[in-house]
Amino acid sequence: MNIGFIGLGNMGGPMAANLAKAGHVVTGFDTAEVAVEGVQAVGSAAEAATDQDIVITMLPNGAILRAVTAEIIPAMRPGAVFLDCSTVDVDSARSVAEEADKADILPLDAPVSGGVGGAQGGTLTFMVGGNEAAFMKAQPLFEIMGQKAVHCGPSGNGQAAKICNNMILGVTMIATCEAFALADKLGLDRQAMFDVVSTSSGYSWSMNAYCPAPGVGPKSPADNGYQPGFAADLMLKDLRLSQQAAEGADADTPMGRAAADLYARFVEEEDGAGRDFSAMLPRFEKRGRG
Ligand code: NAD
Q1: Distance CA 157, CA 164 (A)
Q2: How many Å separate Cα 23 from the centre of its chain?
Q3: Ligand 1 centre and the CA of 185: distance in Å?
Q4: pLDDT above 90: residue 277
Q5: Is residue 137 flagged as an active site residue?
Q6: Would the CA dihedral through 289, 264, 234, 228 be positive or negative?
Q7: Residue 230 and residue 208: Cα distance in Å, rounded?
Q8: What is the pLDDT of residue 16?
Q9: Scanning 15, 28, 47, 176, which has the fewest C-beta atoms within 10 Å of its C-beta?
Q10: How far apart are CA 221 and CA 215, in angstroms?
Q11: Is the pTM of this model over 0.85?
Q12: Choosing from 137, 162, 219, 237, which is the catalytic residue?
């Protein structure tokens, strides 16, 4: 396929490289003028989008996605697929999909989980909103860039799935970290705590697969000085998107709101910026109730 790829950062760069390595013709654009192996760089988003079978975007936020969309839709040919893999607010996803529909372009919102390692290894999970025909056209590319793609329904539903998943993740990570810190203060050994919880009803991905306590459970960022992994800053972004969506939909999300507030404090007022999101554990360790 002829593919345009816009946004060649930490995630987009390796995703575009994997598509090129698999034999697709990839033309790329990034405002930072980065070079990606196998990808032909051009000077504008519109140029990257012209006459492609599919145009992929991997951008920082909804405002940038909306601006790039306005630039590329007039350049894209009718029938082409517009695949946005960024994590953005549901409203932006639905609004750019509407613009694409009006121009007979097939929109898909397909945010990912799996992080930079998943982008490099081609093992991302895609959560996809949009129509079935567009999903089928993009399927071969999902198979190159990822290991799983779930069709979640119409436009915006991919973003909805992503922020609901990450709201659960943020809440369970905080719960796991505060429970470890309480266990410490009660004199419970961390290994014993892990052995019990990971096989009892308190288990979760945060405990079992990404244990925030160093030296306990499988290898995780805790064993690497809390280098991300999944940065607390990105967790904060996703929690804020969940709260923005909850406001718009009039959904009561008290735990999601508490998690967003706590990660905001951690990242913006304390030492959480640039650390893995599981560094909530050393944060709780240092604190008392007051
Ligand atoms: P990044 O900042 O490394 O990459 C974004 C790229 O977009 C940058 O290279 C930037 O120069 C480029 N860009 C900005 N404005 C542009 C424009 N107008 N035109 C063209 N290029 C432009 O970020 P990232 O980590 O690659 O994340 C990209 C998206 O993926 C975000 O929405 C993020 O939330 C999501 N995401 C990231 C991770 C992760 O672990 N990094 C995991 C899942 C999802």
Answers
A1: 10
A2: 26
A3: 40
A4: yes
A5: no
A6: negative
A7: 16
A8: 98
A9: 47
A10: 10
A11: yes
A12: 162
